[in-house]
Write a structure and sequence with these properties.
- By secondary structure, the chain is of the alpha+beta class.
- It has three domains: 3-122, no CATH class; 131-255, Alpha-Beta Plaits (2-Layer Sandwich); 258-346.
- Helices cover 45% and strands 16% of the residues.
- The protein has helices at residues 3-16, 72-83, 95-105, 116-122, 148-158, 188-198, 221-231, 248-255, 258-273, 276-287, 292-299, 303-317, 325-346; strands spanning 21-26, 31-35, 44-51, 55-62, 131-137, 167-172, 175-180, 208-215, 242-243.
- It has a five-stranded mixed sheet with strand order 6-7-5-8-9. The protein has a four-stranded antiparallel sheet with strand order 2-1-4-3, with helices on one face.
- A hairpin with a 2-residue loop joins strand 6 (167-172) and strand 7 (175-180).
- The radius of gyration is 25 Å and the shape is elongated.
- The two termini are 46 Å apart.
Length: 348
Amino acid sequence: MTSDSLFLIFHNLQSAFPNSAIALSDRKGTPLFYCNARHPSSMSYSLEFSLFSDHNLRMTFSSEDFPISSVPERMVHALLSLVESHSPIPGPGDADSMTRFAQRLIAPQEKRENLIPVMAANLGIDLNISRIVCVLQVPQNAFPSDNAFALLRKNLITRGAVSQQDILASLTPELVLYACAIPNGKDPRKWLTYWFQSFSRLFSPSTRMGVGYPVRQLKEYRAAFLTALCACKFPSPFSLPSFAVDYPAESIIALTPQPILEHFLEETAKKLAHTPNLAATALALNRYDLNVSAAATALHIHKNTVVFRFQQLKKLLNMDPVHCDHDRFRFILLCLYMETSEKKKEGV
């Protein structure tokens, strides 16, 4: 392996395990790269093994980086399965390897492997680069004679729109993850809008693009993916991407664990479940920013009926979304929770 590849492995491991000691040496034992533990801990253990048969890697894990209750043998197995392989190292052009890497990158914390940095190094990905995570939702029938991801990837790479440090992966036949490193000096919003419009001819009108929050650390990728997926549900006009920053309440719902949402909102939602007319009115009012006329038009009822139901809603929920900002935010969260719960029941 080249010194650049070895340094990238070391650099990524150092970022993933900031409190652990890492030493990378050649076969003679001469240190090439090393760092000491930031906070030496008595509750730690060490692993040492061959790296690609030419180098040795020694890591002393701190309990702050890796739970001491975990079985060390599992860590050894995971390390060996990734770094002792004698098969060729997949490069940035390997779509399948990139997909497997992306799936682990956005997986829930408890399901993520601690060796994502090594996988990133194998693909030439520097995890210390800031990226913006985007999601493209492309209907399967948009490309009757070709795979949407294959066509998208071919055009992007041909035009040089994907840099060596971008992560482009097909998560499902309809969902594409694009974590891009914004060029220096570029405004992220303008750049991504330009990028999306430049390739809009590839997409059907029903294709959506959601842009999540910027990512600066490994642990932020899943949250950024969830916010991008959330923004994807709210299509912007004029074929523009939807930015999660424009949907703060929706992002909170997407990032909040389900048990917490149920604890605070389930009982209130049950009150509306027994009154379908009030529930429909609440959702319409929330969707149209408490505009009574717009909600009435959407529900095909008289404006005065909406006003009457709104008064009933305020009494039932003990909220005043119009005059109290706190109640307004609670009302928005409640409606979004109800919509999310309904979609889950329908299997959406």
